[in-house]
Each structure stands twice: as C-alpha cells, then as structure tokens.
Amino acid sequence: MNAIPLLLYLAAGILYAFYFAERRASVGHAATAVLGLGAVAHAFITGMETMAVGRMPIASAPEAVSMFVWLLALAYLYMEMATEERALGVFIAPLLVALQALRAVSPVVDKKVPILESPWFGVHVASLLFAYASLALAFVVGLTYVLLFKEIKAKHLGFFYKRLPSLDSLDLMNARTVMVGWLFLTVGVAVGVIWTIQAKSAPVVDPRVQAISLADPKILASIVSWAIYTYALYARKRGFGGRRSAYISVIGFAIVLINFVPIGFFLTRSHNFGG
C-alpha cells in the first residue's frame, strides 16, 4: 500500500518539473493537487497501519522515514499556500520519492513495543520529525539560494533567475524554516533525554535503550545537527545571512539525512525498535 503515495509523489514531481520548465499555471495547480492527493493517501495508509498494529508506525527506521515524508509534503504544501510559489516543488518532490521508496520496499512491522507506550516517546519522535521536515525545507531553500546567487554573480540571468523567488525572499524563507526546525529539534532532544531516563529506570531495560549513549552514532549525529543549527541562528543574529546561511542549511541537512537513513537503518544500536 505504501507504493500508492510513492506513485502520486512521483507523478507530482513530473508535473512540478514541467511547471518549472514551462511556467504554465495550469500545470502548477495540477502538481499541487496531485501532491495533496499523495499526502491524503499517505495519511490514510498511515491510519490503516496504526489501527492494524495498535501504535503509530514510527518505531522502525523505515516507518519514521515514511512519517517524515508525509510531514515534509504537508509542510511544503503549507509553504506553497503561504507564499503562492510553486518553483521549489521540483526540488522537494525527488526527496519525497527517494525516501518514500525506502518505505515501500520495507516490510510492515506488526508488533507492539512496550517501552514505546510512554507519551514522552511520542512527543520525542513527533518533535524530531517536525524538525526534520522544516529543516528539509530550509535545505531546499538554501540550495536554490546558492544556485540563484551563482547565476546572478556570473551575470547570466537566465534559467534560475526567471523561475525562482528573489534572493531576499529565499533568505527570509530560510531564516523562518531554520528557526522552526531548531525549536522542534531542541524540544525533541530535550524530551528524548527525559524518555531515556524514564526507560532506563524500568525494571527490565530493553537492550536498545541500554545502547543509548553519546557513543551511539545516532545520538552523536543528532547533537552535531543541533549544534550546527544553533550556530546558524547565532551567526544570523551576528549578520551572517544570505549565502552563508544557505550553505549552513545545506550542510546541516546533509548530516540530518545521513543520520536519518544510513545511520538509522544500519549503524545505530538504538533508535530502531522495529526489529
């Protein structure tokens, strides 16, 4: 069933690509509609999985990735409505497709994990997923800022200049998305500490909870990500916006993505409760 939103995200990506190239309003509206339909289908399937297994499907790495994809789709659709700008869809859609493909080929985990019934765990994961969705938007905005900046600097005002928002608009979008992402990231890390303390005080401690420490790549990468975005906010207050902030957004999300996929799937001894 997870292939259904994947196909809709792929179709939306194709439409966004046509819109980016041709700038036809009807194609842009169609792309938004198909992406919205994909998000609705994704929500329906997530609800079905929740009822089937008796918990939110966020325990395993593939489940968390899928939930992130859904939140990113919603966040981008909200940004489209707020800015009336669809040019960034061509950059967002490939990310949705690539990550949802991981979920589509992963088996459904059909069991409950007792230690995850704590409300702290739900808040922890939800906060981090909201943070990652916002930071993914910041990444795309930062990437497009760099592309447009290089074109303007080279004095070849053509492909990107005609299709992307102004540098000032992109910089403002970057500042807002990084701020929102940092707030949710901070909450997620803080609540994660509370949940870990609670889980480790249980009579029987799950081995995966015992593995939670600074030596775990997942934990270390999360702290590095938080430090990078904290620096990004500090640097912006010191006047380092624009291209510098754009580069920080790109680098920061690259670490988030590495933490989310290769580390989350293969390298961490904790934070994957689906197995």
Key terms for this structure?
275 residues, mainly alpha, 10 helices, 0% strand, globular
Task: Give a brief description.
This protein is mainly α. It has helices spanning 3-22, 25-53, 61-83, 89-104, 119-153, 159-163, 167-200, 207-210, 217-237, 243-267. It has 2 domains: 1-108; 115-275, no CATH class.
The H-and-E topology, N to C, reads as HHHHHHHHHH
Q: Which sheet architecture does the biggest sheet show? A: none
Q: What does the overall shape look like?
A: globular
Rg (C-alpha, Å): 19 Å
Mean pLDDT across every amino acid position: 91
Share of residues in strands: under 5%
Q: Oligomeric form of this entry?
A: single chain
End-to-end span in angstroms? 20 Å
Structural class: mainly alpha
Tally of structural domains = 2
Name the poorly predicted regions: none
Can you characterise this structure?
It is a single chain. The chain is mostly helical. The protein has two domains: 1-108; 115-275, no CATH class. 77% of the residues lie in helices and 0% in strands. The protein contains ten helices and no strands. The chain has helices spanning 3-22, 25-53, 61-83, 89-104, 119-153, 159-163, 167-200, 207-210, 217-237, 243-267. α1 (3-22) runs antiparallel to α4 and α5 crosses α10. The radius of gyration is 19 Å and the shape is globular. The mean pLDDT is 91.
Q: Which helices and strands occur, and which strands form pairs?
A:
Elements lengths: L2 H20 L2 H29 L7 H23 L5 H16 L14 H35 L5 H5 L3 H34 L6 H4 L6 H21 L5 H25 L8
Helix pairs in contact: 1-2, 1-4, 2-3, 3-4, 3-5, 5-7, 5-10, 7-9, 7-10, 9-10
